[in-house]
Amino acid sequence: MKHIPGFSVHHRRLRISLLAAGLVSLSFSALAESVTVGGANFTESSILANIYASALKKNNIEVKTRLNLGNREIILPALASGEIDIVPEYLGALLNYYDGKTLATRQRDVRAELAKVLPADFTLLAPSPATSITAWAVRAETAKKYHLKTLSDLQPIAHELTIGGPPELAVRALGLPGLKRVYGLEFKAVKSLDMGGPLTRLALNSGKIDVATVVSTQGNLAKEDWVVLVDDKHEQPSQNVVPLVRKASLTAEIGNVLNDISGKLDNAALIELNQQVDLQHKDPAAVAEQWVNANLTRR
After folding, report:
1. Mutual angle of helices 284-295 and 267-278, in 10-degree steps
2. pLDDT tens-place string over residues 120-179
3. Helix and strand tally (H, E) in the chain?
4. Is the pTM here over 0.85, yes or no?
5. Backbone CA torsion sign across 200, 267, 98, 174
6. How far is CA 178 from CA 115, 133, 136, 233, in A?
7. DSSP-derived secondary structure letter, 68
8. What is the DSSP letter of 289?
9. Which domains does the chain have, with CATH numbers?
10. Closest by alpha carbon to 278, among 120, 101, 45?
11. CA atoms of 100 and 172, how far apart (whole Å)
12. Measuring CA to CA, which residue among 191, 130, 132, 181 is closest to residue 155?
């Protein structure tokens, strides 16, 4: 066969060009793959999920959100199935979901216990200094009438009072079972509401309940005429905010972005963010994006 000058060189160049095009195609394909950030059905979780999503988008990671999914009984199976890939969590509450008998309260101990019980396909990233603890509040008039400052002070009168909170309050180890175990509290009645949200606020302010389950960092606590009772026997464990991620979805870039967020979040920031949504009625996504732009730089 007659040799045609430049033919083999041309083909080598063509193969290189095609290979480069293929690599570019693969690169764009990888970029096109998205992660889904989930959130629970209360203000703070929606804000945190939007912060995660906004920061990831800022770093050119395609993100979808699935907010207000419900409680852990819904969210964690969704994470396991791949319906969502990332969710903001709380160390102590997550441990108690998997091990309702744990007595760990300090962050170090909680993390060590979580390492033993967390599903193998999940991973926790760096916890934030911000802690958001389940707490219980009463109207100021109730606190004055019964001289209530701590959860221990409820013990003599709990049988006369109605407590309200999310549906899982009655069964979660850190809910009514924990209050009974640590403080000996047994209430007259339990009303299924939400986690410190509008249903709880209305019920407490109208007198339909006497004790409300709230979140220690929720924005409306400063506005309401309530007294948050001190957890004087430390029934609630360390509740640092922490990203929970499906290992199959975790990349170095995603991990770095989420860890940067954890390093910048503190209690003051959480309270301020919650107040903007709960009191000023701002959109959680807009509030989250503003915080990300003010506190995080593109990696």
Report:
1. 150
2. 999 999 999 999 899 999 999 999 999 999 999 999 999 999 999 999 999 988 999 999
3. 11, 10
4. no
5. negative
6. 22, 14, 13, 11
7. -
8. H
9. 30-130+238-295 (3.40.190.10), 134-229 (3.40.190.120)
10. 45
11. 7
12. 181
